[in-house]
Amino acid sequence: MAYDLGKLGFLVVEDNVPMRHLVRQMLQAFGVKRIADASEGHGAFRVLESADFDIALVDYLMAPMDGVTFTRLLRTERTSPNPYLPVIMMTGYTERERVIEARDAGVTELISKPLSARGLYHHITAVIEYPRPYVRAPGFFGPDRRRRQMSFAGPERRRGTPIKGARYPGRPDYLDV
Hints:
InterPro entries: CheY-like_superfamily (IPR011006), Sig_transdc_resp-reg_receiver (IPR001789), ST_Response_Regulator (IPR052048). It contains five helices and nine strands. By secondary structure, it is of the alpha/beta class. It has one domain: Rossmann fold. α4 (96-105) links the parallel β4 (87-91) and β5. Mean pLDDT is 86; it is low at 159-177.
């Protein structure tokens, strides 16, 4: 299904200027008209304090505030401008530990670099088509990390069977750990 993304606002948080311009051009090709950017997490917070956005595209590795720290603070800081903002993290670091770190910080989706327009569009539509409820638990606030439904006998849920009827076409189930 094709979406009219023209009414959505995107915040691009990327320290690499050519990559930031590339992401901006992809979004414009998708019909997005309202795009703001920042070169790292502190600047992104200033942008978020002055305007509302629908989705943030955030790089993993930036200085002085990286994407994981930005996402964690966005989700948990008392003065956060929008703790419910969907965050799509862009990264060239897809090792399991880093993916888990991003997930545990409250990232909504994760896309690996190098980016393709098709892949970026796919992750944007995943945020739209498969919204996840937000969970508040000790040490975590963010989109529900579980993509599986399961029975369990204890106070915590971990691995299980797929959610009946859920569709994640063409995506690795990288958040199921």
